[in-house]
């Protein structure tokens, strides 16, 4: 009888130990499952944050590239169409200047149209720092007073006009000098004491008269 009781107790103890081990194993499995779930959740959140960050950085990078391209294009345009001081004595230089001036004006008009199309008074209401301020006031500051643009061009044109006028008068002086320098060759005698020169073209009229030397009789 004592031996049977001892065997029963041993069997019960072994079953208890087995149940305890099974419970520990189930708890370990549950902890592992919870850990894996938390890691997966954290990884998903981390992946989502990373994806959103990448999208934001890419959007910012595209905006920076757009600004750089616009700045580069504007710089190249201004360089190409810059109305540099022409050589007023060279017709080709004047024609090139006037052509670039027209291109510059057309480009300025188109630039203004594009500028006003970007105007948005609601742009300052957003909390997104990536959205630029495109209100009318900001755009006006970016463009500057419209008179400044035309003032610069008109100043160049007026200086060219003065230089062309001075060059034109100088050419007439040179023509007059060439004529009176060679009276016998270039001028027409209209009396023993006077000679003149007359030229008329579609652009100007030149009339020069002078006294000419009268040979004195030998005594």
Question: What is the arithmetic mean of pLDDT?
Answer: 77
Order of helices and strands: HHHHHEEE
Number of helices: 5
Structure classification: mainly alpha
Coiled coil: 5-70
Protein name: CLUMA_CG010487, isoform A
Pfam family, one: Casc1_N
GO molecular function: beta-tubulin binding; microtubule binding
Defining traits:
3-stranded antiparallel sheet, 219 residues, 5 helices, IC97/Dnai7-like, mainly alpha, IC97/Casc1_N, rod-shaped
Quick take:
The chain is mainly α.
Describe this structure in words.
- With 219 residues, the chain is mainly alpha-helical.
- The chain has a domain at 1-78.
- It contains 5 helices and 3 strands; from the N terminus they run αααααβββ.
- It has a 3-stranded antiparallel beta sheet.
- The radius of gyration is 48 Å and the shape is rod-shaped.
- It starts with a helix and ends in an 8-residue tail after the last strand.
Helix and strand layout, with pairings?
Layout (H helix, E strand, L loop, with lengths): L1 H80 L9 H27 L18 H8 L2 H36 L1 H4 L1 E2 L4 E7 L4 E7 L8
Antiparallel strand pairs: 1-2, 2-3
